[in-house]
Amino acid sequence: MRLLTLLVMLCVSPLVLAQGKQLHDSSCVQCHSSLTGGKPDLMYTKADRKIGSFEALEKRVGYCAVAAGVSWSPDQVRAVTDYLNRQFYRF
């Protein structure tokens, strides 16, 4: 399973990652900053983070999109998930 995830991760285009970063930065950073004392990356790097798989990350991104009041398509949710996975998680 990890090999499959690695292969998928390697196939993610730079365009998708750029879109994911843009969506993340415009819709997620402000809330995460308020929750982490101005250090939004702590949401992804803290030792006790609750996300343990790519699937769980994608589900959490979907929940956060709803909480933030954004109407992302499944492709946009996946783009943000791919960006976060490449940048922080590496499942």
From TrEMBL:
Residues 1-18 form the signal peptide. Keywords: Signal. The keyword rRNA processing does not apply. It comes from the Bacteria. Transmembrane segments: none annotated. GO terms for molecular function: electron transfer activity; heme binding. InterPro entries: Cyt_c-like_dom_sf. This is Cytochrome c domain-containing protein. It comes from Methylophaga lonarensis MPL. The lineage of its organism: Bacteria, Pseudomonadati, Pseudomonadota, Gammaproteobacteria, Thiotrichales.
